[in-house]
Amino acid sequence: MNYFSYLRQKILEVLLKLEKDEVIPKGLNHSHITVEFPRDPKHGDLSTNAALVLAKLAKLKPSDLAGLIIEHLTLLPEVNDAEAAGPGFINIRLSSNFWWDRLREIVADGTNYGNSDIGRGIPVNIEYVSANPTGPLHVGHARGAVIGDALASILSKAGYNVTKEYYINDAGTQVDVLARSLYLRYQECHGAKIEQMPDGLYPGSYLVDIAKLLKEKDGDKWMSASEKEWLAPFRKFAIDAMMDLIREDLDLLGVRHDHFSSERIMVEKGRVNEVVKFLEGQGLTYTGILEAPKGKKLDDWEERPQTLFRSTQFGDDIDRPIKKSDGNWTYFASDMAYHLDKFKRGFFEMIDIMGADHGGYIKRMDAAVNALTQGQGSLDVKLCHMVNLMENGKSIKMSKRSGAFTKLRDVLDLVGKDVVRFIMLTRKNDAPLDFDLRKVMEKSRDNPVYYVQYSHARCHSVLRHAKEVFEKLELTPDAIEKAPLELLSDSGELLLIKQMAAWPRTLENAAEAREPHRIAYYLIELSGTFHALWTKGAKEDTSLRFVTDNNKPLTLARLVLVGALASVIASGLQVIGVEPVKEMK
RNA sequence: GGCCCCGUAGCUCAGCUGGAUAGAGCAUCGGAUUUCUAAUCCGACGGUCACAGGUUCGAAUCCUGUCGGGGUCACCA
Q: What's the rounded Cα separation, in Å, for the pair A268 and A171?
């Protein structure tokens, strides 16, 4: 359980009682009442601002109101004592029994501990990666992939009904370029010489392999064909091969989508036409001429009438074109159709994970969702900032042109999936992230991946060691039930329990704020508390050792503690897709 | 020029959606190793939360403006 919301509920009950007794007026707004960690642990386990928030409305002094609340709070069995402090906070100390009960709860729930139902089964669609099918993934894509995937797990654990989706941009001119690039490689396979890849085509060597496959399949059947004939089949072959490649990359990263949507199919089914017709019916389109953008020099700028969407009616800065000069729909138009499609599939809540370079796109997409769903659908766009790939403090430039183009697969080979996933979450998504290849491989305190994995491995090391010392020591449900947890009274031990007990709240907060990085930070902190307790037992006070040779009951209680910790860490790592290893190699 | 993001310790960053004396890691300095795996721990040093106003019991957090850094700005996707 989330003990913060549990205690908050208890406080609200006290307030109702006070209302009933006509000590305070009825119908006060409780929404600003919070229950949280006091900044200073000396202030107790929990702190609430209830008296501060309500004092004015109740026409009482904060300290007086606090006194009234405290009177009732101290009657609760889980509350040891409560006192007013500072400008009117109420500091609450919970009983040790309460904490030992939390420990039992953790062990009983295993990695399900922290599951929540705040999502109430609401369907949420989260779209991420959606990289163009024109080449393998690079490191920048990995950030969106990891953030999206972790967020999906978090929301799912918090009780939402999550669908993970990938939108394949297989309809624009870029995929024609891809087809042409493939055709050149195909010709090359049949002996033609390519001095240099023409400008604008994709030079990547991955197309060479695909051309070979195509040669095996079709032989020289396309060599004398006209572009009109080969373009479509080459495009399809290339896109399929690229998507296979991308799926392989994602698989290596441990990312799996539930659903792949194709832009091309969307267009072919006439979905874009439907959307535009709908907007026309609403009077939300018109033919107009946009002004040239300021601050950006465009040599080939020419004024031209375009079909525009009145996105300004929904908060956008300018109206946006939905039809290109060649008569095709813009990318924006098909993206509108795609989001409407998601909505029609039952997703009122949509999340898009995009790169920071798409920042300017949010307002128009938000406007579109608003217009198309008549305000019923909501779109939350999470922007992922740049990944600055480095080696020993020096930036490695990422570009498809230069040879230094850094493929995700190469980085995964080098450092492994766990490192990539964890490091991507060590910064909030809207800040740039440094990813230093050398640093993330270090096995030291600097490297949070190892720090956290080590704490998990250490737990298992303790459990293994205990089995050697005590024969027939099994953590069976019965043994756990009977374990004398009241022996866990050291401040370090209690602190560890308290932090573990905060896991459900951390998870719920991460889900509500949609901020996966909070999980990573929580795990680092929790690991730190454990390492400290471990060293305290190893050095300062050997009576704190988890495995105490001549004291089986005490050892048993501590093994419950260590086992619980292992399961909370494992649960946290699972949520962000990192392997909870039992041994460090 | 418009829009979006960022500005917190020498460096890299957290800060639980407005709470009490602003926290970690790195770096620097000083300690702990016959280990339940030191891939770890303990201590010291270090801040005008960019700046100026405003909102209120209370601001790193919300609002306005200024400065600085990054991204982005028809037809591409």
A: 10
Q: Where are the beta strands (DSSP E) in A347-422?
A: 349-355, 378-384, 387-391, 394-395
Distance A61 CA to B17 C1' (A): 27
Q: Which of A11-20, A254-263, A532-541 has the lowest mean pLDDT?
A: A532-541
pLDDT of residue A403: 44
Q: Residue A303: is its pLDDT beyond 70?
A: yes
User: With contact defined as beta carbons under 8 Å apart, do A532 and A445 qualify?
Assistant: no
CA distances A418 to A134, A150, A257, A440, Å, are: 26, 13, 19, 11
Å between CA of A137 and C1' of B52: 46
Nearest CA-CA partner of A573 in A409, A457, A400: A457
DSSP string across A180-212: HHHHHHHHHHTT---SSPPTTS---THHHHHHH
Of A139-148, A160-169, A197-206, least confident by mean pLDDT is A197-206
Q: Give the pLDDT score at A394.
A: 81
Shortest-distance nucleotide from A321 CA to C1': B74
Q: How far apart are CA A437 and CA A414, in angstroms?
A: 8
Q: Which nucleotide is nearest to A429 (CA to C1')?
A: B5
Residue A569 CA distance to nucleotide B34 C1' (Å): 32
CB atoms within 10 A of CB A90: 26
Q: Which nucleotide's C1' atom has the smallest distance to the CA of A43? A: B20
DSSP one-letter code for A537: I
Tens-digit pLDDT profile for residues A397-437: 655 444 455 889 999 999 999 999 999 999 999 999 999 98
pLDDT digits (tens, 9 = 90+) for A248-280: 999 999 999 999 999 999 999 999 999 999 999
Distance A124 CA to B1 C1' (A): 39
Q: Which nucleotides of B are covered by protein (CB under 7 A)?
A: 1-6, 12-26, 32-33, 35-42, 57-58, 70-77
Q: Residues A135-162: what's their mean pLDDT? A: 96
Give the amino acid at A6: Y
Q: In the prediction, which pLDDT does A512 show?
A: 94
Q: Tell me the CA–C1' distance in angstroms for A535 and B33.
A: 11
Which nucleotide is closest, CA of A434 to its C1'?
Answer: B12
CA of A535 to C1' of B43 (A): 15
Q: Gap from A295 CA to B66 C1', in Å? A: 22
CA–CA gap between residue A222 and residue A504 (Å, rounded): 60
In this prediction, residues A523-529 reach a mean pLDDT of 96
pLDDT at A83: 93
Q: Which nucleotide is nearest to A39 (CA to C1')?
A: B20
| Nearest residue by alpha-carbon distance to C1' of B23 | A39
